[in-house]
Design brief:
21 helices, Helicase_assoc, Helicase-associated domain-containing protein
């Protein structure tokens, strides 16, 4: 009876192993991975994760052979769950394809893709795609794959609906130019005139760094369409041409009072030129001054003897300039804060006058004053100066830490880094941002990560490389890569081995070629 009892126990112990051999785990793995590969789109965001989860699960099966019956049952349940998930994913893809076909039909019928939000089905679907695109730009999880995005864009899908109305009026402007030969639409010309006026205002806001609906992309498109950002410049050019014709006919530029519009314009240029020479506020830009001097304007044409009032103003400016030089001698720079009394206000005034000069407005800055201020290191654009200072800080951070992922808790630099990412998202949406192409390139060259997704990938890559260095050290000390599970690298090595072997067999895995090469260099298997 004792022998019979022992035979019964042995049978109970062996049965699970016999049953396990009837359902090979390797076959279950291959079938499941093939099903994932065949039925899911190649760019589906979750299929690789599902595959690795199954691979990891089956790996745990091999490690739990003492409980074969329960493990086999759990494996079959896992396959059933995977099949159910596959069914849901296939159904979701079919629904998406159906909506895309509806969108194509809408375009054939209406000639555009502006589906009204009142359409509960197609309109709601279009809104969802735009919401998914926003998540994609922010580096967050989304069902909008590269393939889906390409399919929508091939139809002419516009991700930002506010851009549609803008482009429609741009087409109206192009028609106006064909009809009139220019884009200087008067403000009184209805909707188009008001729109043109608004574009100029928004452009100046953008140039100042203020919030604006104007973007670099829109500005480039307007310029390409022949948009005139400063209509007064066209008027100046036209009158300059008339002055050249006058000089060719008469041999001089002494325009009399009987030459109509040319007389009034010539008088205004004389006055602006004289004021500029006297150091008084003047709308005369350096470019216009050079153009007038090329045709014959010269200081000797005018009585430039300075009045007592003008002389005092000039002396006052020179006094402030001397104080600025003393400030630099004491503090090492000329970035006087606005709170620093008269000198601070004077410095701010010089920056404002430079802005006026660039815009062609009346300015007290002469060419000589610009040179004097630049000589002592005057900062004309404080926003650019501050940005460059922060950029130098992140360069230093990169040198010390090997990356640019400054945590937001790091203080001012952390906040600045987060702000750059926010500006990057705005730029990708075509909205106004002070993140210029030059700034973006400078940060990208430094290895700056623009989205959360990039930041996570960068952090994961650093962690992987750190673990690889530890594995190299282990291999040098022991002569092999058989790290026990109890070691700090145990679980990591097991996961790498599963992915490494899957990659060698041609099965999709998260093992990149670079990582695989590194592991092969230390005889990893």
């Amino acid at each position: 009876s004792t022998q019979a009892s022992n035979r019964s126990k042995a049978t109970r112990i062996r049965q699970p192993h016999m049953a396990r051999s009837n359902v090979p785990m390797r076959l279950v793995l291959i079938i499941t991975l093939c099903a994932l590969f065949v039925f899911l789109p190649c760019d589906h965001p979750t299929w690789q994760v599902d595959a690795l989860q199954v691979a990891s699960f089956l790996s745990s099966i091999r490690a739990a052979r003492d409980d074969g019956t329960k493990t086999r049952l759990a494996a079959l349940h896992a396959v059933a769950r995977s099949n159910k998930s596959l069914g849901k994913l296939k159904a979701g893809q079919a629904r998406w394809d159906g909506r895309l076909e509806q969108l194509r039909q809408f375009r054939r019928e209406h000639g555009h893709l502006n589906v009204p939000s009142s359409d509960p089905e197609l309109g709601g679907w279009v809104t969802t795609q735009r919401a998914m695109h926003i998540r994609w730009e922010a580096g967050k999880g989304t069902t909008l794959t590269d393939e889906r995005r390409a399919q929508l864009e091939s139809l002419g899908f516009v991700w930002d609906p506010t851009d549609l109305a803008w482009r429609k009026i741009l087409e109206d402007l192009s028609r106006y130019r064909v009809e009139h030969g220019h884009c200087s639409v008067p403000h009184s010309y209805g909707t188009l005139g008001r729109w043109v006026h608004t574009q100029r205002l928004e452009y100046h806001k953008m140039m100042r760094g203020d919030d604006s609906t104007m973007t670099e992309v829109r500005a480039a498109e307007l310029s390409e369409a022949g948009f005139e950002w400063d209509p007064r410049q066209r008027q100046f050019d036209e009158m300059m041409e008339r002055l050249r014709e006058f000089k060719e006919e008469r041999g001089h530029i002494r325009v009399g009072s009987k030459e109509g519009k040319l007389s009034g314009w010539f008088y205004r240029q004389q006055r602006a030129y004289r004021d500029l020479l006297d150091g008084l506020p003047s709308p005369m830009t350096l470019e216009r001054k050079a153009a007038l001097e090329e045709i014959g304007f010269a200081p000797k044409m005018f009585n430039t003897t300075l009045s007592v009032k003008t002389t005092k103003k000039k002396e006052k400016w020179e006094d402030s300039y001397e104080k600025l030089k003393l400030y630099k001698k004491e503090f090492g720079h000329v970035n006087v804060p606005q709170t620093d009394g008269k000198l601070g206000r004077w410095v701010r005034h010089q920056r404002q006058q430079m802005t006026n000069l660039k815009k062609g407005k009346r300015s007290t800055l002469t060419e000589e004053r610009v040179k004097l201020l630049s000589y002592v290191g005057f900062v004309w654009d404080m926003k650019e100066f501050k940005w460059q200072k922060k950029f130098e800080e992140i360069q230093q951070y990169h040198e010390e830490n090997g990356h640019c992922n400054v945590p937001q808790s790091y203080g001012e630099l952390g906040d600045w880094v987060e702000t750059q990412r926010e500006q990057f998202v705005l730029k990708k949406k075509g909205r106004n941002t002070w993140l210029t192409n030059e700034r973006e390139d400078a940060l990208s060259d430094l290895g700056f990560t623009w989205t959360r997704g990039e930041q996570i990938r960068s952090r994961n890559e650093r962690r992987w490389n750190n673990n690889f260095e530890k594995l190299k050290k282990f291999q040098n000390e022991t002569g092999n890569c058989s790290v026990p599970l109890t070691h700090e690298l145990g679980n990591w090595v097991r996961n790498q081995r599963a992915q490494f072997r899957a990659a060698k067999r041609g099965i999709q895995s998260s093992m990149t070629e670079g990582r695989r090469s590194k592991l092969e260099s230390i005889s990893f298997d």
